[in-house]
């Protein structure tokens, strides 16, 4: 059985200047609100997007 995806939350809960995404975890407000009801496929898709976003921001 696949491992359950945990939350990407790092406890730094603050919005970006546009008020659309958390500067701690990178999720949108919609993703944060929906997280508890999302299935594992949807959670993994968000986690993959966050990983790609982090790689771009770090210049890799």
Automatic annotation (TrEMBL):
It comes from the Bacteria. PANTHER family: DUF1289 DOMAIN-CONTAINING PROTEIN. This is DUF1289 domain-containing protein.
């Amino acid at each position: 059985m696949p491992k359950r995806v945990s939350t990407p939350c790092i406890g730094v809960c603050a919005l970006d200047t546009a008020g659309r995404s958390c500067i701690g975890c990178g999720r949108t407000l919609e993703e944060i609100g929906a997280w508890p009801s999302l299935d594992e496929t949807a959670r993994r898709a968000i986690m993959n997007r966050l990983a790609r976003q982090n790689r771009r921001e770090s210049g890799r």
